[in-house]
Amino acid sequence: MTKSPGLRKRMALKTTSTRMSDLPVEKLLERTQIYLDRFDFSSALRYVSAAISKEPDNIHALELQAAALLELGEVDQAFQVLKKCVDISPTTGHDKFLTLGQLHAGHEALGFFRRGVEVLQSDLQIAPAEYHPGLIRQLSSAFCTMAEIYLTDCCDDDDAEQQCVTLVEQAIQADPTNPEAFLMQCSLRISQEDPSGAGAALDQCLSLWYVPTINQEANNASDEGADDPDGGALEVDSAHHADLPAFELRMQAVKLLLELGRHEVGLDIAEQLISEDDEVIGVWYLAGWAAYLLGDLPHALEFLTQALTLYKTLGSDEEELLEHATELVAELQSKGVTVADAGAEDGDSDNEMEE
């Protein structure tokens, strides 16, 4: 007798369920992590839920469950799971406190971050040396986030400025190689109306990771044809790329560069970001705004038009950004600027380089 497709499907699901229930917790969590790394959050949630059904108070399992829920947009459920983690283990495990801080605002967020920092500092005392760099970076970034809260949500507190100053100093002291700490210092200096200090902080940030595109191209050209032992071309930029700050932090660097009038560097980094991910509306907008400020109107129109095109395709809640981009495009078009002019300028530039 031939089984119907529906019966085969039910039997397959039952087999999968049976196999999952037969796995020990350790194996279930291993597979959970594999699915998280693959961005398959639904599968990760199934496996970690199976683990929790066996060990309801397993902190590691609960934290993985919260991570999967957050990725799936189930913020309220993740919050409840993290609160359970705190109840089970109120003095160990810094990650849950830092995540709870990110899920809150204002003084509530600061309270969770302070607890997370205390636990993190304790963890540093007992952790093996190989874990120290990662923990130190987390500590520095936690100080940065707290400083940002004092610059925004809690800016009306009487001691907000001094708290922010202290936290930025702690962030830099904890990890002097953390670009985020110097970006935060730059924002602080701008709020203090100290453009010189802001520029110095931004320079320090850029010195940790930024390589101008023209230098990258020169390096690639000098290494062109260099072979690795297997006969392939060497990847000269792979190590540098691995050390880059997060995409969002580099976007923040562009914003600060433009605010401080350093438009050329801002445009260069924005174009590097576009080459890395060309579906981020904000980056196209920043590139367009930078080009506009530099007087490169054809390229400004090209970048801004692409930002609006992506908005129609992907959507966005950045209403002010999109309104500004729309105004700029209308202005440029009223002046007779066309995207074709950008291509012509690129061609002229290439011809000049060849000569």
From TrEMBL:
Gene3D superfamilies: Tetratricopeptide repeat domain
CDD domains: ACL4-like
A Pfam entry, by short name: TPR_16
Name of the protein described by the UniProt record: Uncharacterized protein
